[in-house]
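Sample intake sheet
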Amino acid sequence: MDISSTDPYDEARLRELWEVGKTSDEHGRPWATYVPWGAARVAYLPNGAFDQRFYAASDAGAVVGAARCALPLLDNTDSAHLELHVRPDRRRQGVGTALFERVLVDLADQGRSVVLVEVSTPSDGEPSPGARFAEHHGFTVGIVDDHRVLDLVGTRDRWPDLAGECAPHHAEYRLVTWHDQVPAEHLEGYCALQHAFNLEAPAGDLVIEPELWDAQRVRDKEERFRHAGRHEVVTAAVAPDGSLAGLSEVLVSDHAPDHGMQGGTLVLRGHRGHRLGLALKVANQRAVVERFPGCTRLHTWNAGVNDHMNAINDRLGFETVERLLELQRKLP
């Protein structure tokens, strides 16, 4: 078996790695949401936010394992985000271990001290192969998220009552929605909210720092999304003084338009108690189905300890389908 690095501009080779990742990620998981190739091809290109490394495990010329390692460049520069997959028929044969050991050598050269991985596993029963692999290789659970799915068609009749219930509590706030591009007048507030996510959202024992956002980072992200066919629907709450008090984001891809991916939902501490979290999600879900009528499902991942957000999701009709383990391993 040969372990080799892959040129991020070698499209044919990256497609092989992506196919291994998709096969591995979807094996035995009816609710898998592996990134479509059209979006992945753009996401894999070098950019100013991450230095990305790709590795292939090959046997007799066929790719049987794949790894992708993203090294943050703008913040959290001690960490690395690892995605590692082995073809289901080649698991428990040392492929994943060989890939992981090669990644560790490169991370040592880069001076990274924390490796972060995300692993899906059933809510009940035996741990998934990925969870067992991570535990065997010294990863510890930082926080556990519930992967929940919403039937947008079957639950939309709840929206009028929920919105009406919330409205009296946030009468002094305006809800505004935009698509794909943050309006210039809200750029500063949007950056402040993105910075606040890692400070205010539950992170358990994960070693993560606040992300540093400015106008250039926002516009760079929007340009990448445009090339990848990814659309962002955002509803924000504008406080009486004109600042942004909170927001809720959903991503829908041209390459998988039947489902959306819930991004962040956050209300800043000084603006809580006005039912803005529920109001923002209701308004944004309405905006999603208006723009993307073929979008019938919405996926979200929330920490099990986030009681407030989980209560909101219960009222919206989300149902738990599995769990996501956010794990880390500290390196010497």
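Comment: The domain at 149-321 is CATH 3.40.630.30 (Aminopeptidase). The chain has two domains: 2-112, 149-321.
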